Amino acid sequence: MKTSVIGYPRIGGLRELKFASEKYFRSEISADELEKTAKQIRLYNIDLQRINNIDFIPSNDFSFYDGVLDTAFLLGAVAQRYTQLGLSKLDTYFAAARGYQGEKGDVKALAMKKWYNTNYHYMVPEIDDSTKIELVGSKPLELYKEAAEAGVKTKPVVIGAYTFLKLARYTGSKNAQDFAQDTAKAYSKLLEKLSELGAEWVQIDEPSLVKDMTAQDIELFTGLYKNILADRHGVKVLLQTYFGDVRDCYDRICSLGFDGIGLDFTEGKKTLELVKANGFPKGKLLFAGVVNGKNIWRNDYSKTVGIISELAKYTNDIVIGTSCSLLHVPCTLENETKLADEVRRHFAYAQEKLGELGELKKILASGDAQAQPEFIANKALHEEQRSGFNAAVREKVAKLTEKDFVRLPEFSEREKIQKAEFKLPLFPTTTIGSFPQTADVKAARSSFRKGELSQEDYESFIEKKIAECVALQEEIGLDVLVHGEFERNDMVEYFGECLDGYIFTEKAWVQSYGTRCVKPPVVWGDISRAKPMTVRWSKYAQSLTDKNMKGMLTGPVTILNWSFPREDISLRESAFQIALAIREEVLDLEANGIRIIQVDEAALREKLPLRKSDWREDYLDWAIPAFRFVHSGVKPQTQIHTHMCYSEFADIIKDIDDMDADVITFEASRSDLTILDVLKANNFRTEAGPGVYDIHSPRIPSKDEIKAAINKMIGRIPVQKLWVNPDCGLKTRGVEETVPSLKNLVAAAREARDENS
Ligand code: GLN
Ligand code: ZN
Description:
By secondary structure, the protein is an alpha/beta fold. The protein contains 28 helices and 24 strands. The strands form seven sheets. Strands 1-14-13-12-11-10-8-2 form an eight-stranded parallel beta sheet. A six-stranded parallel beta sheet has the order 15-20-21-22-23-24. The structure holds glutamine (GLN) and zinc ion.
């Protein structure tokens, strides 16, 4: 029994790569110094895996920004606007990743997208008709050599040809198929060069195979690999899949000439079934992904041993490994100094997962798994009664019935009642919630956390900020106001800290994109609302104005999606527990005189399963009801808003309407308002505020520009249903651009109002 790791986190245990890169961006260190940090991290990671007896250690899993971008550079698929700048190799790469503005030119970055169903983002390669795909880079070769020089024979890793061509954006008239031959040739050349260096195995990652595949996709995949594998130049090729099962192409994969096949037994619901139904080809190695690369819990050895013994009926050539790259979990528990031991022993970050692979290897090789001390200890751990059980919450969730998810009276009735109640003008203006988190806000929070600022002083500081924010909005002339969210560091962490059942880590950073890392909180036990979370701030803000103050909450699906979820109860159960807590807050706000309440579901779209056939059963069937439950108890006069960050929800538009909010605001400006046609075609019922300008850039939109956006919306959304707002919260913006932007927004809305009434 051997062990394999698909990829290892590259940010460094204390985010060394992030800090070095940011220094480099600010010209505080040289490229050589940045490279030195990078090399240290790479060699440290490889050594750690060697010490843990990992048999297949990856190289080239390192990246300065993103692995897909690396692949684009490897294959020469880089838009000319970057290569023409005349920058160094490294700076050209960063220009594509982050954009470039300087003496050599002004170019925007490549688009960024979510990496399958993770919170990691990749850079979308652009391919135009003149792109010539060929092997021009050498990073996999250099990193293989670097590891070899350090005495470790690694398994170089590259993103596969099929996945690369599927993820790329084609800006001309050619498509993936048109580039297939050249791409296959480039990969074949890469195999040849790696073979010359002495590599024995190469891992080719093809996560796109776990998505729904058309017949054409299967042909593309088959064609590519017939070519690539025609001459392997003596290296063995591992086809690595992850994030699901390969039900559409399992037989193809088996019949092609791969030497190893990597399958995901953690997230792939049908993986075991596929092997049982079709067998596994003789003479190939099965790389079984059994240690979860996406979550921080210890592996359940008895479950893993069960899977492996099932598999052993079909093949003897099994390698155990991680279910995907460990990029999606934090580096090491060693830097967590504050976790109680009772909690800590249930956690395994990347480094600890290496230890688990070692233990599993020993257990599985022993012939009598159950008798091994590591197995017995692990079993006891999983049978342990964990703290955080809340019988009352469990019972409430168990008792939910259909009517708990239904708000009455129905939408059209409520809409009438609310029109009469609020008497808002046509095209009411509002913002998404947060106002600029200026340096004074961050400084006050940090002094408060360090104990330098008393609770009383901190709270009066927040009140002062709220009062300024309310006055500012009145001056600008917005219709529905917000308190500004100055008390919040983050829209999930803030609520997590107010909820029982959550645990916070100190150093559990995970790369989100480039140098940006997130530290998701952990759902440890049953969730309940320990205390009112936002009431005092909203109530205070409302007391300062005659206009309506929107209460501001994060929804249950988003809270869950941006946390490490439990594995001992279902996501559905956790979502309902969180929904129960948020519902209590909604009712509390209502009881305290807040008449408009926004429940953000920024991340609703994010965890939609990769396969359409799994959407309902595995996700929407509980996610939408969880949201509905949050607001089904309010009075008809209370207006419920929701907000979503991306408008990539054309395919679930009915479900969004079915959340039954009264108003939804979302991003639309960056996607050229294309979503509006979808709203129209589907007779979208919920009132809507498609963002009229992009808050992700410091640019100030002119009144006319905003007016043009509003005009585009009129006609697609009935005027009585149209709201005017920016496309997301303003917390990352400066005051300098926020104030004039909002003034222009109000002026544009007023103009539109005059013209349409
Ligand atoms: N209410 C939040 C804010 O304005 C929403 C943030 C988000 O959608 N990411 O900051
Ligand atoms: Zn948003």
